[in-house]
Structure formats: C-alpha cells, structure tokens
Specification:
216 residues, mainly alpha, three-stranded antiparallel beta sheet, 50% helix
C-alpha cells in the first residue's frame, strides 16, 4: 500500500515553538536583565527588577514575547504616566525593553522593535511657590531665622530650589532689566556650581525689587 502525505508545508521544531510562545514579556526582560547582571553587576539592576514588577507585570498579563508591538508599548507608557513614574524610571524600563525587543527580533520572534522611537518624558521637579514682598516681610517679623538668612529670603521671593539659590552667579543677575536667569545649581558639599538645573531647563524670572536689594 502506498501512503500519501498531507502537504502541510515546512515543519518546525514543536518544542522550540511551544517554548517561545510560552515566554512572557516580563520573564523575557528578566532573562535579558540576567545577562546584563553577569556583565555589569550593580544596584541599578535591582532597581530595574523593581520597575519590572511595578509597571511591566500589570501590563504584560497574558502577553508573550510575540505580542511586543506598538499597542503594548503605548499601554506600558500609559501605565507609567498614570502611576506618575519618574523620567529616570521610564528611561530605565524602556531601555531594557529596547534591548529585549532587539533580541527578540534577532531570534525572529517579532518582526520589528517597537521601542526604538520613544519620546522622552520630562517632568518638572518639586516647585517652590514664590511669595510677595508683603508676605516675606510678615514672615521675617514672625521668624527671626528668615530675617537673618538672605539665601532663604531669595528662595522665597523667587521660588528657587535650594541648590539653585546656592549656585546663583552674578552673571545671571540683571538688575537693570529686572531679570534673573536660573541656569546653575550648587549641590550640597560641592565646591563649584554646575551649569544646569535639576530638570536640565534654564528659566528667566522677574522677581520683586526686594530680591535685588537683598543681593546687593
């Protein structure tokens, strides 16, 4: 008797297919992270593991490595924005996913890397509200520490961060125009100011005249 085979096409190793489709996105990222740990051990890898658990696992429930696409990327970014993730956390996690997706493309699990182009997330740091001259004088009358601390008075009048007030330079002050350019910061314990702010954005402000009187 002659047997006729069914033309199903080119076969593939069933075990490799089953194993590939069973890998979740979170587990795949942990595998990539494990390889990075072997090359570059450090505390930043521990933080990445926490980010995977906090942001990636809730989004990747039921998602395998084959489901890495634009929809998954947008869902993850939406989850991080909803939970107010910092720019640093977003950069670390999306960087890991970029490496994980690149490895998946190399192994033909997915066709393209959806994490190659991600717009950066800039979030403002903690803002200190500026007070009026009247409010400052009331505070100075109530608290002698404010009356004796010129740096604190400038902070309250301008809304500067502490490091920005410590790093204020004369070249940034224009009393004639009534403008102060905030583009330096001097961190506690440092000897010289650096030309950038906490969020890498310089800004111009027009403080009350009392600010320039204190500086002079």
């Amino acid at each position: 008797m002659r047997y006729r085979t069914i033309p199903l096409g080119q076969p593939e190793n069933y075990r490799s297919v089953r194993r590939r489709r069973a890998i979740s996105v979170a587990d795949w990222c942990r595998e990539v992270l494990r390889r990075k740990k072997a090359r570059q051990p450090g505390k930043e890898n521990e933080k990445t593991e926490r980010l995977i658990k906090k942001y990636l696992e809730p989004v990747s429930v039921g998602q395998t490595i084959n489901d890495l696409d634009d929809a998954f990327r947008n869902a993850l970014i939406g989850e991080m924005e909803k939970r107010r993730a910092t720019a640093q956390s977003r950069e670390i996690l999306t960087g890991l996913l970029r490496d994980a997706a690149a490895e998946a493309v190399k192994r033909n699990y997915i066709r393209y890397n959806p994490f190659l182009e991600i717009p950066p997330l800039y979030r403002e740091g903690k803002k200190y509200p500026a007070l009026s001259e009247r409010e400052i004088r009331m505070l100075m009358a109530l608290d002698p520490r404010i009356a004796a601390n010129a740096c604190m008075q400038v902070q309250l009048l301008t809304g500067m961060r502490p490091a920005e007030a410590r790093g204020l330079c004369w070249e940034d002050v224009s009393e004639r125009d009534g403008i102060i350019l905030i583009c330096h910061q001097l961190r506690e314990g440092a000897s010289e100011p650096i030309k950038r702010t906490k969020n890498y954005k310089s800004r111009k402000i027009r403080p009350p005249q009392m600010t320039f009187d204190i500086l002079n």
